[in-house]
User: Which sequence fits this backbone?
């Protein structure tokens, strides 16, 4: 896996990230840190990447189990340390999974498998953060 980060100019703290798969993502800093609030912060990108990683796993696990999953949303809330390095200390992930005839134990198992076996991002972040999860099912 590769990526390249380019500073977008001397007058701010915006950066353009190009992924190895050819996608472009912009990041910016907070105004009090020289940024202009034009894009997500780098640590927000870490958090959203983790959410994407675990959502991918949960949907894939449910689909492979032939469960009728129709949508998956993960809402993440995180706390960071007060002092540098301001690592994540707590992360809560609330999964809202929509489908037909889904059972709570099956979806909770998929979430657990993601966090204990498959999601590299959440497993890595669990080294510094207490990660908790909750699941809400919506019948469609």
Assistant:
């Amino acid at each position: 896996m590769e990526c390249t980060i380019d500073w977008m100019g001397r007058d701010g703290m915006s950066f353009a990230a190009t992924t190895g798969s050819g996608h472009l993502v912009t990041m910016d800093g907070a105004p009090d840190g020289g940024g202009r609030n034009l894009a997500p912060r780098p640590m927000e990108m870490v958090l959203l990447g983790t959410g994407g990683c675990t959502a991918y796993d949960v949907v894939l696990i449910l689909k492979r189990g032939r469960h009728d999953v129709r949508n998956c949303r993960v809402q993440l809330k995180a706390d960071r340390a007060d002092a540098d390095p301001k690592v994540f200390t707590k992360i809560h992930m609330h999964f809202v999974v929509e489908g037909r005839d889904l059972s709570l134990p099956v979806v909770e198992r998929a979430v657990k498998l993601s966090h204990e076996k498959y999601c590299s991002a959440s497993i890595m972040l669990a080294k510094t953060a207490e990660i908790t999860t909750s699941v809400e099912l919506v019948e469609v």
Notes: The first strand starts at residue 3 and ends at 7. The mean pLDDT is 96. The CA atoms of residues 88 and 125 lie 7 Å apart. The helical segments are 42-64, 104-118, 120-125.
